[in-house]
Amino acid sequence: MDRILVNGGVRLKGEVKISGAKNAALPIMAASILCDGPVGSATFLAGRHRGHGTASVQPGGRGAGTRRGRMTISPQTLRWQEAPYDLVRKMRASFFVLGPLVGKYGHARVSMPGGCAIGTRPVDIHLKALSELGVELRVEHGYVEAETLTGRVLGNRVVLEFPSVGATENALMAAVLAKGTSELCNVAREPEIADLADFLNSCGAKIHGQGTDTLVIEGVDRLSGGTYSIIPDRIEAGTLAIAAALTRGNVRLVGAVADHMRALIDRLREAGVAVMEEPDALHVIGPDELVAIDEVTTRPYPGFPTDMQAQLMALLSIAKGTSVIKETIFENRFMHTSELCRMGADISVDGACAVVRGVPKLSGSPVMASDLRASAALVLAGLVAEGETEILRVYHLDRGYERLDAKLAGLGARVRRVSGKANGHMAAVVP
Known about the structure:
UDP-n-acetylglucosamine1-carboxyvinyl-transferase, Chain; 4-stranded mixed beta sheet; 29% helix; 2 domains
């Protein structure tokens, strides 16, 4: 099993290109099901998630391939309208195929999802939205069985009880080929939602209202294929920005979109970090001394993203003063605090609130990642810790980042990936 070893104390310098957004690529790959022609992109994510993503669109890998760095999906060869348990348990985003499958074929069978251990993340909102679009749903033997009586989704007004990203994407994709016009209200406003809508429009859809809390979709009869470049990954950019800030570094993030990262940029500046916005990049310079932030509360976009909470906590763990972090999106997203405390951080948790008292330094230690963003936070902490930090369960990291360890190494970090048995006394407790 792979693990990552980090030796701290190096100021990061240089520039790094931001990868395409995972949270945009996966829904767009699912949306390709709706198209009658091939869909190509040079910016679809690399690594394990790409493999799982193509499998969710084309079970067995048929109709999907990569050539000269460009990935092409040919949905016209699709023969199955099912996403089995073995796939969806590995990657929760595979549940996104429910909307496009029922939208294109009028029926679908998709396993209930698995995913990170950071909360229940119920799919009730997805199912309620689809039912209001005329889809009959049954949950049996761990699968969602979806079917339309007329063979086509029916346009309707749908109000989400919470601006769920996944529910917004599933309902949006289901409505594109619907009969009539759909109005989706209280939807998620994330840039990745707008990117999905822009992709669908480039294929012939008629979607309006991107970036607002209401989407209007005029149903069309068919979508063509085409090529599309997804937006840069704002979470990867934010993670690398914090790496620069923590190490008192000087890093240029090529491709980062400041408008997608406004909440994080504001918090970094509040902590004393210099962030310069350029037309096609962010330039981040870390201060000699970080300062605490009174309070940070995670919110749906454009609020502070829950996907950056763990990384910001790593930064605040060595900031001068006391910071408070409130988590409002997921009920179990402070599991990284115990591992940061193993490294010398002073953090106490009470329910959905964490109090972070900055300490002068962290110490390298064997630590265990519990989820995707927690693993990133531990790598970041290792960059400033004295001695060597050994991060176990880095498969979590690979679910959401394209070669993060290699990108950090390219900026000068002493970080390397190794295989084999873990070092230290934690080796005995790895499940």
